[in-house]
Amino acid sequence: MGRDMQRRGLFALVVASMALSAMRVLHAQDAKKPFTPEELDQMLAPIALYPDALLSQVLMAATYPLEVVEAARWSKANPNLKGDAAVAAVKDKNWDVSVMSLAAFPQVLVQLSDHLDWTQKLGDAMIGQEQDVADSIQRLRAKAADAGNLKSGNEQTVTSQGSGDDRTIVIEQANPNTVYVPAYNPSWAYGSWPYPAYPPVYYPPPPGYGYGTALLTGFLFGAGILAAGAMFGGWNWGRRGNSYVNVNVNRAVTINNNFDRNRYTNNNRWQHDPDHRRGVAYRDPATREHFGQNRPGADQRQQFRGRLEGNPGAGQANRPQANARPNLPQRPGGGQQRPAAPNRGSGAQPARSGGFNGVERGQQVNREAARGRAQQQRAVSHGGGGGARPSGGGARPSGGGGRPAGGGGHAGGGGARGGHR
After folding, report:
1. Using CA atoms, how far apart are residues 345 and 152, in angstroms rounded to an integer?
2. Biggest distance spanned by C-alpha atoms of the chain
3. Cα(140)–Cα(132) distance, rounded to whole angstroms?
4. 42 three-state secondary structure
5. pLDDT (tens digit, 0 to 9) for every residue of the chain, 421 residues total?
6. Which residues contact 117 (CB under 8 A, 6 or more apart)?
7. How far is the C-alpha of 67 from the C-alpha of 54, rounded, in Å?
8. Which of 59, 146, 319, 356 could form a disulfide with 362 if both were Cys (CB 3.0 to 4.6 A apart)?
């Protein structure tokens, strides 16, 4: 049962990886353009009215979509855990602290995992346009307040500072120990929507978390969650164009024992950690280069993965099979020379996590087949008619010269094989 669950979990992550790559190809034409204010308001509408701390942690976590998928699967497998108890239970996971913190709020993880296209856009905007994201949040909050739909209550406290374009609206938990996750229909919350071409995104609250059915008007908060220990994020609200997410490092280290506080020497301002990106491509070449994701051929591999997702049979015709044998010339004495099996003790590449090992594996098989042909040609040209007999992982002449063995040299593996099993 345990292995079966692990296989299902791995399969889900592979599917998520391929889906994210397919999304990236679909958005490639707009990759060099920043998100417009209309697009930002559209995508942020479902969460802009969250309390500041929760909102900041959602946006940080959105920059690590594959870890969000893992966390959502964990949450579904542990339905009785939420709040600080759930956060304590995932301390051994290799997730970013923002993703760990969302284990306290399973309904939030479900929304992010079930709508990966939206989640990845949120993350891309947060990485590349954090200031614009902050401005969008304040625009949306101002719309909700002006429509009379954003007020203080038992669940959260709303305060406003400044006026006009420099008005800042802060949303905080009414009780520092209890967090309420609001659910609302953006078409109601923000009043008359000013961008008909960019209607606000709305995802009804997921079933089973106390919200009931889809909303037309009003806020629903569900049950309060005891999650004081899960809150480490916040917003440094400045004038427009001068706001950013900050991190309480003292709280973050209690959530994740591996949290590196040394990354936060710049006024505790949040910084994206590419190590938790898990290979998900960044939106544009400049961002990929900035975070070191500029490996040769990355664009071509990304396009290939997108085509593979759109057409599961694509790319199979030219991919060498794991046990395929290259066509080799006949050597004297009959039989075919078969390539040596790769030396798994020294030449095998380490297994790579994620859903894209097939591309590298196919390339490795090609390389090993080429080495086998080269070894055969050397054996034919220098062995004096006998075939070099491979032993173990490499060609090794037996005795003083090449010696036929049973009609032909043989490889221990019965053909070219990939280094990963």
Report:
1. 65
2. 93
3. 12
4. helix
5. 555 555 555 555 555 555 555 545 444 445 568 999 999 999 999 999 999 999 999 999 999 999 999 999 999 999 999 999 999 999 999 999 999 999 999 999 999 999 999 999 999 999 999 999 999 999 999 999 999 999 999 999 999 998 887 899 999 999 999 999 999 999 999 999 999 999 999 998 888 777 776 677 889 888 899 999 999 999 999 877 889 999 999 999 999 988 988 888 878 999 999 999 998 999 999 999 999 876 544 444 444 334 334 444 433 433 334 344 444 444 444 444 444 444 444 443 444 444 334 434 445 545 555 565 566 555 545 544 444 344 344 434 444 444 444 444 443 333 333 444 3
6. 23
7. 17
8. 319
The one-letter amino acid code at 330 reads Q
Amino acid found at 241: G
What is the pTM (predicted TM-score) of this model?
0.66
3-class DSSP state of 10: helix
Take residue 152 and report the two structure tokens written for it.
């203080």
What's the angle, vertex CA 20, arms to CA 19 and CA 22, rounded to 5?
Answer: 65
